[in-house]
Amino acid sequence: MIISISLLVVTAIVVVGYVMIFVLPPKQLVVRVGDVSYTRGDMVKLLRLRQATLQATGQNISNSDDVFEALQLIVENEIITQAAPRLGISVTNEQVDAQIRNVMSPSEAESLGKTEAQIDREFEERYRQYLNLTQVSKDEHRALVRRSILRELVRQFIGDSVPAVDEQVYLHRMTLSGFDEIDIMQTKFKDAVAIDNSPDFLRVLFKSLAREFSSDPGTLQTGGELGWQPQGVLEDYDRRFFELEPGELSEPVANLDNPQEFHFFMLSERSESRPLSEVNQDILKTRALQTWLNEERANHDIYAVFNSEIYGWVFEELRINTMITPTPAPTPLFPGL
User: Fold this and answer.
1) What is the CATH number of domain 167-275?
2) Which of 55, 218, 225, 249 is the most exposed, fewest CB within 10 Å of its CB?
3) Cα–Cα distance between 258 and 5 in angstroms, integer?
4) What is the pLDDT of residues 176-229, one digit of tens each?
């Protein structure tokens, strides 16, 4: 009886330990938006999809930013899902099918000489490998793709408020450190502008000075020319350059990415009404979505918990997952995942 009881106790300890380590953590709550809850396991599934995308380019999830971004994305996508019906926006199964096929099917070049049946088989095999790599079921993956499509539809809907034509400035920037010859650069610029401040001359002048004084490798290639910029694209620096007069050099502006460096901005031209480039319009649409999300949060009861213990558990799950080495296959990047 003593041996039997001891075995039962040991077995109970093992079972409890297994449940505590492997069963309960994936089910623990990390996010709740209204009545909809998300667990650690849901977060790991999202991160595995991101991990698969990074692995296709030889990278890995390696810092806390990726984890916090996943948590933020879960919250934002649920807000979008709950608000979409009010906006009259929905996603059909056909749209989900088309999105998955678009990124998983062989390319046009790879499909040459193949029958539709062969292409379908190759698509199914690639999709199977992808699901195996990410350890996500087909239904779970389709739900995530549906949310990514919905996010893009809402982004486009909100982005309709972004004007196609707006005031813009032709912007130039160079970067110097405190050890560079800032005074000499400013003097050269001031003396040259006193002679000629036409747009063409200003562009040539700034390019020459940037290549002579700038410590930013990118500036050496482009001469500091950033082109036509509306307000909102470089929003962290907008107020430091947008109101400059053409030919006026800004005061030193701290580089937010490197406190040891300073930016100097200049406008060579200003246009009160100019069509936005496709790239800038896309950036402003994304910013508009983020502004809408920040305002929409007030309409939802949001709860989120994240600590070092959860962080460590998530990374351990991802480490285990990255040990899988299936046959390499093209890994798509689903926007919003």
Assistant:
1) 3.10.50.40
2) 218
3) 65
4) 988 888 999 999 999 999 999 999 999 999 999 999 998 888 777 788 999 999
